[in-house]
Structures are given as C-alpha cells and as structure tokens.
C-alpha cells in the first residue's frame, strides 16, 4: 500500500504538520496484531492526500503514538472508503476511515462487496460528508437539479473511492446510468478541480465535509456553482438508501455561493475488524475520544459532531470496546448497534 508525505494545505499549523508527518510516514503496519499488551503496529487506512481522511488519520496516529504504550500507528494513503474496507477484510489495515454507505454495503455483502461481506464494526463516528455536485458559474447550460447533468461531462470520483460509490448509488436511485447518461470521468478531487478549470468537464462530485479545502482553493480562481438536489430527487434517494439524509449547504459557506443549496449527507466512521480484541478497542476508543481536540485541529468544521453521543449514527454494530467505553460515560446505545 503506497504512502505519500502529508501536505499541509488543509489549514494545519506548522507544528501539527510536523507531528502528522512523523506519524503518517512511519513504517507499514503489520496486520492482525491487535491484542493489548503486545508490542504492535496499527495501520490506519485513510484516503488520498487531497482529502480530509489522510490528515485525520495522521492526527489519529499521532495521538495513539503519544498516548498509548507499546503501539506504533501509521496513516496510509489509499484510494478511499471502498479500498479501506477491503484492506480491513484482508487484514492489511486495523482502522479504516470510511463513509457509512460503504461500511453498510461491506457489512451486508452488497454492492461493491456483493457476496464478500466484511467482518467489521464501528470504533468511532466522525462527521457527516455532504454531497456536492460542483460546476462553475462560467459554464453555460442549465443545472437546476441534479438530473440535469444528463449528457454532460461529469467526474464521479476516483476509482474505488467512497465518492464514486456514493455517486453510483445516487444515479441508481434516480434511475440513471453513469455508463450511458453522462460522459463519465473518474477523477480524484484535485484532478476534478483542474479539469473544471481547464474546461475538460462540466461538473463533478465531491462527497466531503462542508468547506473542504480543495473547493475553497477552486473558488479562489473560479466562482462555484453548486447543483441542487431537488425535492423529488432527495425523496427517491433517501427512500432507497436510508443512510442518506436531507441536508442544506447554507449560502455563504462558500464565498461564491450566496443561496442555500439542498443536497444529501452521510456520516463518516472509523471501522475496525471484528477480530480486534475488546481491550484493544477500548484502549483506542478511550485514547481517541479523550483527545478529540487534536483531531478537531485537522477539520474544525467537524468539531461539533465528534462526540460519543453520535455513535448512534453508526450504520453497523459497534465494537465491544467502544460500547463499553460509551456506557461507562453514560451514553445509551440502541440494541441494533450492539455486537
């Protein structure tokens, strides 16, 4: 699994970047060694260097390395959510940051994981990802609802990413085909932004937290146009895939977008394999939740969401370790999330 050096383009301080680089660039993890008390390494599967997952995973690794004895953690660059769950299944990663739709499919052996269910549980619930269908105000053509992208040149996300999966599910719920109804491109965020600037595509998808750094960088040179999900589209998508929730991007979140834009959102979680011991899960959950201030420095917009009470947003059962920790803190966990 390839690793790349962390870039400090997401609002990180110099000092924090140095510590994240140290954590993220340590040696690859040895999988399957998760028993508390044994010297072990933990691999955290994240995403591309252009997204939030990678610096978030770097911050997690840095916290674990500082606060947990006998453990060496490292953040690994990956293609995103789908690949991350596959790495968990293959015992190549111990923690995986992923979107809840991917985790739901992996757990139930559906979609991208058809016939190959992944034995996984949730250790943390992070923050919601918001579906952005992005064009530029300089582009001609009416894009009043998401379905108006039919016939357009559209980037669905990098191959194997949670972004691509989310877009495919949106297309499916709306009775559209990414193979037939659009001129499909499969770019990561930075490539999508470049393609928009160069006029190579008409629009593209970002499934990210609001105020994502790559979108702010894009609007520094080109005014954004966010394509809305109209009410009937939201209804169809959330009915077929209930892990999608109605969401509104408020006007002003992006300086070039003045009006509210209706869309969808889903939660990001930290997945772990079911073979991770209860003690190790408890130790990691306690360490990370008691040091969320360090994680919030990476993505301040997600700070309000990174609380124990949001464990109830998990799309699959919780790991016994975080369940024990949450109950010690008085958080009520519904039966559907008990392993």
Automatic annotation (TrEMBL):
Q: Name one Pfam family in it.
A: NMT1_3
* PROSITE patterns the UniProt entry points to: PROKAR_LIPOPROTEIN
- InterPro entries, alphabetically? TRAP_TAXI (IPR011852)
Q: Which Gene3D superfamilies does the UniProt record give?
A: Periplasmic binding protein-like II (3.40.190.10)
Q: Does the keyword Membrane apply?
A: no
The protein's name is TAXI family TRAP transporter solute-binding subunit
Which positions make up the signal peptide?
Answer: 1-23
Which keywords describe this protein according to UniProt? Signal
